[in-house]
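Re: weekly structure request thread

Next one in the queue (146 aa):
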Amino acid sequence: MARAIKLQNNTYLDTSGIVHNRQILADKLLLPYILYSNNSGSSTDITLTDSVSNYEYIDVYYIGVGHNRTGGQVQRCYLKHNNCFTLLAQDYSSDTSRIYFYCTRYQATNKTITPVNYRSLTLISGNTISLTDSNSVAILKVIGYK
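Done, posted below.
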């Protein structure tokens, strides 16, 4: 199967005949496929367009949604041997008197990513700590590579 690389001038380079380290380059390329995309994000179960088992790894784009929707991050997850991963996001209050940490553990099975455990930790000025069971991590996009 021939694979092409898009160049800066919007042309494509056919990699089917290029050899690197005695291996055909087209066999080494992993192409991205969008499995899920939602600009608002989701803190609940996510249904993907394809099974995660068909991909070498996935990139999960996410944010903390507790207060200011900050802390946009991406996490690369290799799911071949372990179908669980953890996302950690952070946020702050508008008057900066509180810092929030959100941690959610997910399980990826077939076409579904499910939050299985979650906690939120709040640090309040004056050395007060609050711990709650709430999922304040929202997944925005999942990209699979194969």
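Residues 25-28 form the longest helix (4 residues). Residues 31-145 form one domain.
Next request, please.
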